[in-house]
Amino acid sequence: MEWDSSDDGLGGSMEALPYLSESSQSMPSTTNISEHEFSCHCCYDILVNPTTLTCGHNFCRHCLALWWESSHKNECPECREKWAGFPKINILLRDATDKLFTEVVQRRRAEIQDNSKISRSLLAFQRYGDNLGRSKPNQHKGAGFFFSGVLTALTCVAVMVLVYHWSSGVVEQQDMLISKPVSHWTPEDVVSWLELLGPWAQLYREPFQQESVNGRLLLMLGDEELLKAPYSIDNQAHRRAILAELDRVKTLGVKPPQNLWEYKVTNAGKSLFLLYALKRSPRLTLFYLYLFDYSETFLPFLHTCCPAITNIGQSVESSFLNTQMEPSWRQWGEFLVKYLLLPYQLIAEFAWDWLAVHYWTSRFIIVNAMLLSVLEGCALWRLWARASIRAMPRKMWNHLWKMLSQGFAFALLWPFFPQFVCNCLFYWALYFSPIINIDLVVQQLMHPETQAL
User: Fold this and answer.
1) Any residues with CB less than 8 A from the CB of 347 and at least 6 apart, and which?
2) Residues near 60 by beta carbon (within 8 Å), at least 6 away in sequence
3) Same domain, 270 and 236
4) Number of CB atoms found within 10 A of residue 7's CB
């Protein structure tokens, strides 16, 4: 029985495979079959997942992926003929090598599986094939691409119109106490500030109006002054709540922001940074807030996501006061569990608490947090399925370095960007990022990354 190494002899050789004995499968040297006939011309070893190109040459799939990644060329490593389409695994040849060289193939599969560089190359090669397969059907959908382009153009126009509208009108409608120094507050400003503390503060509106308390007089008020006439605030919880908020006003020099738009007006650059950073790396961003923005941002965030246990009959002003206090151990424990396992749930819970203030915006943020959680779960599942958990420390370090460099670049370049451009980026990430993430989730669930090994 003669075996031909050319492709024309492959069909005849396959016919003889069922008649091979068990001893010939484990020791192919006892027959006329040689390992050379089933070897890859890149690694010169037994073919693993043999992939046949249009020119007829066969290579290990991982060898072809490494060649494609290093050369960036769609051509045969041996004859340099360009291949058409995306190379597929030769199932007949793969089954033959698995039966004839079982031990060798199993050993090589294990070695390839443990090599992180080869796994990354295979994944990149498969992504290239998936994208190539999805782009081909779209080449004949001219009408679909036309309407998609029209929709994209209308979306960009809508973003610019919204940015212009909010930049010109909404800022003037916002409470200007967030940018007006407290020493310049008029009696009307002080009354407005008092009303924003809550419904319970309405009881003390008349004394402040009768005394014409302006910003300078407000800064001189203390516990004794509030207890005496004409204010006569006998409720200790009310006095503590007013004094706590007054301390924040003294520290900041203005009224602290109480909603998303006020926070954006007072912290334009930081709001844009947090919007993108929380999406890319929520854990590092929350850690940054803990280190550098504890009292103003992190503490209210923690109290909102992990509220303290309160009595049923606790008053509103006491709840307001609790948000200014240090968290309990129970709150810290709940926060750390969510921080490590479900960071996007923290963002969703924070947005849910603001549902009455930002109706549609909160819903966009909640949907986006759910989608990002799904994407993170898919990424962890791929690492587990590919047995790449050992590469986690290196990936985490690369991610940390990437986020630090991007944050540093943003801090340097932020002052040079026009405010209109920053507003466009802000509203695009806030309202249209969920639409993009929906497409990514569909791709992950409908087109999962296939395992080449």
Assistant:
1) 278, 282, 365, 369
2) 40, 42, 43, 45, 47, 48, 49, 50, 51
3) no
4) 12
* Cα four-point dihedral sign 210, 216, 219, 224: negative
Domain limits at 82?
A: 7-138
Q: CATH number, domain at 61?
A: 3.30.40.10
Nearest to 273 by CA among 433, 438, 429, 431: 429
How many angstroms separate the first and last alpha carbons of the chain? 33
Q: What is the pLDDT of residues 138-185, one digit of tens each?
A: 444 444 455 555 556 666 666 666 665 555 544 444 457 787 888 888
Total number of domains constituting the chain: 3
Q: Summarize pLDDT for 231-276 with one digit per residue, the tens.
A: 888 888 888 888 888 888 888 888 888 778 888 877 888 888 888 8
CA–CA dist 377, 371 (Å, integer): 10
The answer to whether residues 233 and 204 touch, using CB atoms and an 8 Å cutoff, is: yes
pLDDT tens digit string along 172-230? 444 577 878 888 888 888 888 888 887 888 888 888 888 888 888 888 888 888 888 88
The answer to whether position 147 is within a domain reads no
Taking the C-alpha atoms of residue 47 and residue 54, their distance in angstroms, rounded to an integer, is 17
Q: Is residue 164 part of a domain?
A: no
What is the band of 19 on the pLDDT scale with cuts at 50, 70, 90? very low
Distance CA 237, CA 233 (A): 10
